[in-house]
Write a structure and sequence with these properties.
Elements (H helix, E strand, L loop, with lengths): L7 H24 L1 E13 L13 E10 H10 L5 E4 L6 E4 L2 E5 H4 L3 H5 L3 E5 L3 E5 L4 E8 L2 E5 L3 E3 L4 E3 L2 E6 L1 H4 L5 E2 L3 E6 L3 E6 L7 E2 L3 E6 L1 E16 L5 E6 L2 E9 L11 E5 H6 L4 E2 L2 E3 L5 E7 L3 E7 L1
Parallel strand pairs: 1-3, 8-13, 9-14, 18-21
Antiparallel strand pairs: 1-2, 2-6, 4-5, 5-7, 8-12, 10-18, 11-17, 12-16, 15-17, 18-20, 19-25, 20-24, 21-23, 22-25
Length: 315
Amino acid sequence: MKKFKISRRDLTYLCVSLLLAWIIWLVQNLSSDYKGQVAVPVTAWCNIDGHSASSSSAAVVHARCNASGYTLLRLKRRSVSSPVNVEFAPGALQHKSGELFYITSDALADYSAAIFGDARIEAYLTDTLFFRFPYQNSRRVPVAGRLELAFRPQYMALGYMTFSPDSVTVFGDPSFTDALECVYTRPVSLSDIAGPVHGSVRLDAPSGLRLSTDQVNYDMDVTRYVEIVKEARVVTRNVPAGRTLVVYPSVVRVMLRCRFPMLAASNVNPVLWIDYEDFKKSFSGKCIPRIENLPEWVINYQVEPEVFECVEIEL
């Protein structure tokens, strides 16, 4: 009887061929569509005032679907792994009582892609899903901007940048919310500013806290200006009879920034004065003068020097 001998090389080819055939068979079968029942655990996320952003426990969605073998295998593995995080619109969840909220299968259809991926859902076997959102403390705090602004020469802001809304509600543990003074925006970086600016910017949510909104709108008026320099004498007011208040220096240089175009600069005659009550309240006799008689088109001013020595003399 003649013996058949298989070389090591032929045996390798045979094993590789069988392996390739098995892979082709597997790919072909997994690519085909099948019907089946799946169960996917879901953790709900939702922005509900006074409650945590995420549910404290997961709910399981049962459905009958039509999908490829790949998708069904993935969904079967999902049933024993970590839950799917699904973000629901506030209107989708109905309030049952206390911390308990629910969603019906009709509303759940809008979130089938987030839960089941590309599987085609034939029917939901779960009528209603219930989620518990624990209560959280809340507090209203103002919005503060992180600004990195660079203006074109002879342009400046008219007032401060404003935000809308100018305050937000923060939710979280009282030990964190009670210590919070404001919520900052992410940096607003603008350069070569030569006109009004507006836009939107996201907020930096402090760790462990949730915000009622994640972004705000900003707005800032900008104008062109020109600078003029005036000299003015510093006078005193409300000095009691029999006393004199001497101010050093008595003549100052005032730098005025005026909106462009401006009226005749000769019409600007600033008046600087020091109130006797301000002098009495000071510990060192140093006072900052007040200013008046500035036209509306003067945006701001700078006095040199800014602080004056005052000496009281009894007559």
